[in-house]
Design goal:
With 98 residues, the protein is an all-alpha fold. It is built from three helices and no strands. The longest helix has 23 residues.
Length: 98
């Protein structure tokens, strides 16, 4: 794949990738989405949530780069850190570092 050189090329590549992602996911029976073991102990649902989290972070990062005064990246990180702290309290065996 060639590296996109313009914004419109990048958007086209991103949209094509999203269509492909959606097509793959649509082929999975909904009953199987929560079954562990797709990647280690992770289910498809967990993998999708993980990817979605990175997409959300990337969007916040880009918005922050365009307008740092908005503070969206710091707010995003603080929200998810609080969620992680609550999860770790309920799951003390959850690793602190990845």
């Amino acid at each position: 794949m060639d590296i996109p050189k313009t914004k419109s090329e990048l958007l086209r590549v991103m949209e094509a990738g999203r269509r492909e992602w959606d097509k793959v996911l649509s082929q999975i029976n909904e009953q199987h989405l929560s079954e562990p073991g797709v990647e280690g102990v992770w289910s498809v649902k967990q993998i999708v949530a993980h990817v979605a989290g990175y997409e959300e972070w990337t969007a916040a990062f880009l918005i922050n780069r365009l307008n740092p005064s908005v503070g969206i990246l710091a707010a995003h990180d603080a929200f998810w850190q609080a969620q992680l702290d609550v999860y770790r309290q309920a799951h003390p065996d959850f690793p602190v570092h990845g």
